[in-house]
């Protein structure tokens, strides 16, 4: 709190943000008769202002990993399973159509309430009446907050539950698929064959989620012992500096490389699609590339890169044949995920 007082701009942004949360009922005062909870039935979380490095926007974060006597709230919470869609699969879907579109879930974690009996574990101190000139008092969150270990799993589960709550409803199938498979946390991207279809999907997605009051809106690894002995903050050995500088200089040419978002050009009607997977290995690395071959009804053929990847050669692979086998395994896994 004292640090905020010496930065008026950041303090004002925090006050505005906290005010919105209070007005929405996401934060509540702890009643006077509940100021002293039963032993072991409450936890107080430090709140920190975090500034976005590019936007300059300040977000209030609940530091549930902060420890007191060696214990933190996150150490006692079950994180839950990692059920987030894989980013690679989301981006692949984003390319499968002529029209690309995006959406965002506003304040996703705050969409999900915390049971009243558990809210005392989300206590924190903030200015009374959200006025920095007044004393700090006890407040508590009524929703899952940014900083709690289980918040991501809970939010993703809740988002998908909204699409399955009425399984008998056969409408909005494309929107349900969009919500289930095209979101990476609170950001969704997908593609369709027409702008009308894209608009319809977004409208239906807002309709589905509206029922629940949600608005849609350098590597350290190396195979050399010398580099292995380097710490993160150690200077790079002189013998490697030329290679490093040459690699940095080559980055300027990366802007000349472009890949069309859609797998096929505008108006291309695919009647046959084939995935072609290539992999190879050398003494230094293994890699693969996957291409999509599309053919239209009039015999036109379009080939586009779907994805590619490379890795430093595994240490356990002591021969080229073994490394080629490792490359084949990686390529097969990638192809299976892509299909």
From TrEMBL:
GO biological process: DNA biosynthetic process
SUPFAM superfamilies, alphabetized: DNA/RNA polymerases
One Pfam family recorded for the sequence: Peptidase_A17
InterPro entries: DNA/RNA_pol_sf, Retrotrans_Pao
Protein's name in the database: Uncharacterized protein
